[in-house]
What we know:
By secondary structure, this protein is an alpha/beta fold. The protein has helices at residues 13-20, 44-48, 62-68, 103-108, 124-131, 148-154, 183-187, 230-313, 319-340, 351-359, 366-394, 397-444; strands spanning 5-7, 28-32, 52-56, 73-75, 77-79, 84-89, 99-101, 116-122, 139-142, 164-168, 191-196, 200-205, 225-227. The chain is 53% helix and 13% strand. Helix 2 links the parallel strand 2 (28-32) and strand 3. The two termini are 53 Å apart.
Amino acid sequence: MAATITSYAQNREDVILNRIFQDLKDGFYIDIGAYHPTVASVTKTFYDRGWSGVNVEPGPVFDELERARPRDVNLKAAVVDYDGEIGFLENSSNPGMSKVMPAEVHHDHNVSTEQISRVSAITLNSLVAKYAKDRTINFLKIDAEGAEMAIIRSTNWKVIRPQVMVIEATAPWSNELVNQEWEPKLLTNNYIRAFFDGINVFYLRDEDKELLSRFDMPLNVLDNYGIFDQGAQQLRIDQAELSARNTELTEKLTAAKARSDTLAASLDLSRDEVTRLRAMIADAQSDAQDAQRDLQRVAARAARYDRLVSSLRDPDGPRALRIVLPLARVVRKISHVIGSRPKVPMAPHDISKTSALLAGPRRLSPKRIALAIYRRFLGPVVRPSMGRIRLFMMQPVSDQVARVNDQVAGLRSLVETQQRTGEMASEHIKSLEALIITIASQTRK
């Protein structure tokens, strides 16, 4: 039993043809009025078996036909009795009923020129010479919606000899044969009328009349065929598209989950950073508080020192200070006089005199007596007081207080900056949390 085939043709023409050519693996066909690559296609079964051929279709479905049949020659044209252009009337409600419209015809049928498009016109002689020369045409199908007579009458059947011709030979939507005008042309060119399926007439060339017996039986279960279910095919297509869509959504979900994990990790890092910043802020605040306390202590001490300096400078100050200050001034003047007297270098001839004087008894002058008394009794008391007074007079404490104030202001600026950084980090964490919640909600959907 032959292998099971799928019938795509509207009236099972492909099953009859498969019975004739069941043993031929690499055949060739010409399909005039090919229409769709699958729906109502006489050639689809043979294309799937490895055959090839020429498909002619002038309608808008041509683009789909061309995409589905890369191994075939596909022509967007109409086969008529001349080469050039011809009008084409598309039937939008039933595209399979679209047909060519010569100018004299559409004027008679009151068809507006806006409904007519222009398509290329070619004869079967030109088509075969260009695309099928030296090829054996196993079968020729003609479904030209009224242009069959023009094609048959203009073709040289002595040169073009397809083994089998399948020609639509009835009036639209009826079993009434309308082949009376063009069938004699085929019969006189040695073609045999082999079979009528109710719509099409099968013609067999006389050279292959041994195949005539294969047309004797009607279609039956032994032809081993199944019928193409367009609804099931569409369902399979929809399922494939749904599967692809599910795969795409799964990939997007995986990517969203990975993104969510990345954001969660980033959120954890941000939280750790915020915790660190908060600890730094707390340390800075603690340092600022310590500095504030130090500043308060320094300010209190500076106030005491300032009061002391003011008291020292004030003639009406405390009595003890009034006594010390004049004495300090006298001592300073004495020190200045003693320390500022220039030393005159001794001449060489005076050195002997000086040595003689030093060798004799030393005389006590009032100056030496006053200096000895100062060093013995007043020096130990006056010197420390004068040192302290000079220190506070020469370097006011207010400068130190100003420096401490600057340091405290710097600490406060640092604390404020860290606080702003902590607030920004908190806002960043909130944004990350909101984004993770959004992704999670979309993932659930």
